[in-house]
Amino acid sequence: PKQVVEHILSTPGCPPFPPAQWLSLIQWKYVDLAKVLESAHTTELDPKQSHVIDDKVELSFRVSKPGGSIKSAADHNTAFTMFVKALSFVFPQRWEEYSEYQSRLGQLFHSFEPSFHHRVIDYD
Questions:
Q1: Deepest of 4, 84, 99, 112, by most Cβ within 10 A of its Cβ?
Q2: 87-107 per-residue burial string, b: 16 or more CB within 10 A, e: under 16
Q3: 65: confidence class by pLDDT, cuts 50, 70, 90
Q4: Is the per-residue pLDDT at 88 higher than 80?
Q5: What is the pTM of this model?
Q6: 3-state class (DSSP) for residue 23
Q7: Which of 52-56, 62-66, 93-97, 110-114 has the lowest mean pLDDT?
């Protein structure tokens, strides 16, 4: 399976998706949407980090902090869209099924107050 993931990652047009989650996807195992979201972006930064190269050179920079978990409809939509793109890249025949499911989840998010979105996320 790891060779399959390597082949997928080297295929032109391959959508961005974490390698470990590609492996889960092709094995039809649980795909962790929180890790998918984390690979997409983060909105927080860790404090500045410094690395001393020698006595005269020091590099300082800020690095992204891991995103953690899915906390909102927007987080879920971002991660699930990435999942559907990855899934349909390797299993194009499943696109319509998962697109309809994503649409249904969007309707659920829309029908509940934001304070109850965690229930939709737990449902998924």
A1: 84
A2: bbbbeeeeeeebeeebeebee
A3: low
A4: yes
A5: 0.73
A6: helix
A7: 62-66
20 closest CA partner among 30, 12, 11: 30
What string of H, E and C letters represents the secondary structure of 56-106?
A: CCEEEECCECCCCCCCCHHHHHHHHHHHHHHHHHHCHHHHHHHHHHHHHHH
Q: How far apart (Å, rounded) are the C-alpha atoms in residues 9 and 27? A: 16
Per DSSP, 18 falls in state -
Of the candidates 46, 22, 50, the residue with the CA atom closest to the CA atom of residue 35: 22
User: For residue 73, which of 46, 45, 110 has the smallest C-alpha distance?
Assistant: 110
Phi, psi of 13 (to 5 degrees): 85, 5
